[in-house]
Amino acid sequence: MLKGASTLLAGTIFGVGLAISEMINPAKVLAFLDIAGRWDPSLALVMAGALAMTTVGFRIVLKRPAPWFAPRFELPSGGQIDGRLLAGAAVFGIGWGLVGFCPGPAIASLAFAEVESLIFVAAMLAGAALYQVGSGRAESGTWFSRRT
To answer: What is the pTM (predicted TM-score) of this model?
Structure first.
């Protein structure tokens, strides 16, 4: 119960932050990405603020022996840059640059029930499902689960 409530609270805070910063507005994001045209640098401040909070927050939180609602921290082992990572980053960047959405803001924008948001999220879920099927993870009962 508490884990679900804390997850809902964290997601709500994240969604409100995305809305306040206008990261759920594709036009704002595309203006940020248009460095050769009418560039809007305001999202750089949002990203810098997020990076600063994450840097400080990780230092504080990781001093704890474990998270509140899990037996241990699930941190990436990191370091390995491979083809899958590069391909995923490329697909993410291309999608973000074409339509101005990335997954978090797209899901938050569903609150406005705009057709573009619905189409993007449907396509994103279809892509995730295709990946699961293509990688054989759908049959193993690990749909949308994290790899450990």
So the answer is: 0.69
